[in-house]
Specification:
Blueprint (H helix, E strand, L loop, with lengths): L2 E5 L5 H11 L8 H13 L3 E8 L2 E11 L9 E9 L8 H15 L4 E3 L6 H9 L24
Parallel strand pairs: 4-5
Antiparallel strand pairs: 1-2, 2-3, 3-4
């Protein structure tokens, strides 16, 4: 299997949405106009890169990387990693590790002092991230916010 990791482009949106459907199967699919608007915002956001993994020309994985400027740690940025997903049909073939390696390389290239993520509370997920060099060093907190009363495009 020939695996290539690259930045996502607008033409990859339907493949990304299919992967996100595997990540969050209970989420309703986004209408096309909403997805296009959200993608435009992601694409224009400074420090944001959505990576894709292709296996033999088919999109099979993704990771969303965000680099935030930072006034501590000598001004070195912080990288956040989100929405890591590999298609169920090709899991456990090294694709996720390739994506995570590429994500960390983005953070290193941007001069970040750390890359961090939140992980599902599943032992196999934790084992995966530890195998990728991440350590469970802090307790994460999250607060879900109510749905926005306007569309995702701000209309």
């Amino acid at each position: 299997m020939n695996i290539i990791v690259r930045s996502a482009v607008a033409e990859d949106l339907s493949s990304l949405l299919a992967l996100y459907g595997e990540l969050n199967p209970d989420d309703a699919p986004l209408p096309e106009h909403t997805a296009n608007g959200v993608w435009s915002g992601i694409h224009e956001q400074q420090g944001r890169t959505v990576l894709l993994a292709e296996a033999d020309g088919v999109v099979v994985g993704t990771v969303d990387c965000m680099v935030l400027p930072n006034l501590t740690r000598g001004g070195r940025g912080i990288q956040f990693v989100e929405n890591v997903v590999v298609a169920g049909s090709v899991q456990r073939r090294g694709i996720g590790q390739r994506l995570m390696r590429a994500a960390v390389q983005l953070g290193e290239s941007a001069g970040c002092y750390k890359a961090q993520l939140l992980a599902a509370d599943d032992e196999y997920v934790h084992a995966f991230y530890e195998a990728c060099g991440f350590m469970p060093l802090a307790q994460g907190f999250r607060r879900y916010l109510p749905p926005d009363r306007t569309s995702a495009t701000g209309a």
